[in-house]
Amino acid sequence: MSDALDPKRTSRDLNEIQELLTQWIREKVIDSEAVISDLRRPSGSGMSSETLLFTTDSKNADLSSEQPLVARLAPTSEDIPVFQEYDLGLQVQIMKIIRERTSIPVPNVLWLETNSHVLGVPFFVMEQIEGRVPPDIPPYVFGGWLLDASQENRETLERQSVEIISELSKIDIEGIDTGFLENGFSGETHLRRHFAAQQNYYQWVIGNNRNHPVIEYAFTWLDQNWPEESGTVLSWGDSRIGNIMFNNESFTPVAVFDWEMASLAPVEVDLGWLVFLHSFFQDIAETYEFPGLPDFMKPETVREIFREQTGILPQDLHWFMVYAGLRHAIIMSRINDRSVHFGQATWTDDVDEAIPHRNLLWTLMDKSI
Description:
Blueprint: H1 14-29, E1 35-40, E2 50-57, E3 67-73, H2 88-101, E4 109-113, E5 123-127, H3 145-148, H4 151-169, H5 190-206, H6 213-224, E6 232-235, E7 244-246, E8 253-256, E9 263-266, H7 267-287, H8 299-310, H9 317-341, H10 358-366
Antiparallel strand pairs: 1-2, 2-3, 3-5, 4-5, 6-9, 7-8
Helix pairs in contact: 4-7, 4-8, 5-9, 6-9, 7-9, 9-10
C-alpha cells in the first residue's frame, strides 16, 4: 500500500507503550501479575486519535481472563494532531449519555486516564467488540465484504446506519446537561456556532502558510445559501459507516465509536456527513474506473429512510453535503501537513491537490439547491 493511501499517524513505539500500559493496567486491576498481549494498531480506519487493540490477562474478578480491550489515545503535539483539542472526557461523557438513553450499541468505557504522565497523552480504555467495519484504507468501494454483500444486506446496513442518527435525534436534550458540548463560539443558532467553529479550525490549520481556494469559496457559498434550520439535536459529528462495527451475519450495528466531533447541531449535519463521505469514496472509485456502490447512501434514499424512522423529512440536504465537503477538506489539509511531517507527501503550488475531493466539492457547489 502506498504512503498516500496509508498515511502515518504516530511516531510512538509500541514496545514502549506496552511496558507503560502493562504497569498502568496492573495498578487499575490491583494485580501485579496482570499482562497484556497482542498489542497492535488496527488497519483500515482512523486518522485522528490513535487506537490500540490488546488483550489483558488478569486474576482480578472484574475482568475476564484474556479480555480483549481497546485504548484510544490522544495524539502527541509532535505528530501534527488533526484537531486543535482532544477532549477525551467529552467523548466518554457523550458515550455514557448514549448508552443510558438509547439502544445505540456504544462500547463500555472501563477507565479514563487524564494524567499525561502515564503514556505521554490522555487515553481511555473500553471493551473490545467483535464485528467488522467498512474500511477507509483502501476504501470499501474498491472491494471487500460490503461490496460483495447482497443488495438486501447492503440495504439493511444502510437503514441501520441512518437509524443511529435517528435515535440520536430523539434524545431529549432539554433533559440533560449539554453544556460540555457548547463550542464557545458566537452565533444566533447552534448551526451558526458550528459554522464559526469551522472557520476558526480552518484558520488554525492554514496559519500563515497557505489559502485553499476551494475551501474559501465553500465558506462563501454556504453563507450565501444559508438553509432553513431545523431544531438542535445531539450531533455525532463523524457519522459515517467507517465508524460503525457491524455483525458479520445480520449486518446490524454492534458498536458505534469515534465521538470526538460530537456537538449540538441540526440533524442534517450528521445526515449530510453520512451521505457525503460515501459520495467521496464513490467518486474515488469512479475516478479509477471501479464500479463502487453508486446506488448506496443516495441523498434521496437517506432522506426517505430518516422520514420513515422519525416522521421528519430532512431539509436542504444538498447544503449539508457541501458543508460536509468543506469540513472534510479542512481535515484533509491538516492530514497532508502530517504526511509532510512524516516525509510521505509534499506541498505543491496547487495547494488544493491535498484535497482529494475538491472536484466533487466544486461540482456540488455548481448545482442549484
